[in-house]
């Protein structure tokens, strides 16, 4: 039986022998991308992962928002938001915010870089299979977009009571969200295993 590629958007199965691995291929039904040309996408994936790493560092180093009310000014960072939940007695919520917005994206980016950079240089990374398994596990825990949506709703409501100024980190979070979603789309599990297979040839 020939292997199949399942569309990530609509679950339509395509026979792989009718698809050339060197081509960009779209789903026959919903036009979602099934695969990208190998060489270009590997370079793009590494560039996007490095970009995401820098954006993640900026997201945590600078204030997310600055709030001014009654002459007082306060700002908070991403980690500060998680610590704020912890300090108010919502320890599990604080841990969840920290896990889904800092730890999971960081592990996702680092695991990808540890796998992709050796593949790009033509060598086989150590512990490749373990890293790929870790990557698939942490990906489902990366919820940057959910956090951003919640934060934006909260900020719009708070704007009635205080002056809210978005910080550098908020813009970095928006860019990081876009960067991670593109990175996830071009490094699908099928694509990662194709690069690994190619490195063995
Ligand atoms: Zn489809």
How many β-strand runs? 7
List segments where confidence is low: pLDDT < 50 over at least 5 consecutive residues: none
Could you estimate the helical fraction of the residues in percent? 55-70%
Which structural class matches the secondary elements? alpha+beta
Sequence of secondary-structure elements: EEEEHEEHHHHEHH
Strand-residue proportion: 5-15%
Shape: elongated
Strand order of the largest sheet: 6-5-7
Largest sheet: 3 strands, antiparallel
Write out the distinct hetero groups bound to the structure.
Answer: zinc ion
Overall mean pLDDT? 84
The figure for the number of domains is: 2
Distance linking N and C termini: 23 Å
List keywords for this structure.
about 200 residues, 2 domains, 3-stranded antiparallel sheet, two-stranded antiparallel sheet, 7 helices, 7 strands, about 60% helix, binds zinc ion
How do you describe this structure in short?
The chain is α+β, with helices and mostly antiparallel strands and 201 residues long. Helices cover 61% and strands 12% of the residues.
Question: What would you say this structure looks like, in words?
Answer:
It is a single chain. The chain is α+β, with helices and mostly antiparallel strands and 201 residues long. The chain has two domains: 1-35; 37-200. The protein is 61% helix and 12% strand. The strands form three sheets. Strands 6-5-7 form a three-stranded antiparallel β-sheet. Strands 1-2 form a two-stranded antiparallel sheet. It has a two-stranded antiparallel sheet with strand order 3-4. Bound molecules: zinc ion. Zinc ion is lined by residues 7, 9-10, 12, 27, 29-30, 32.
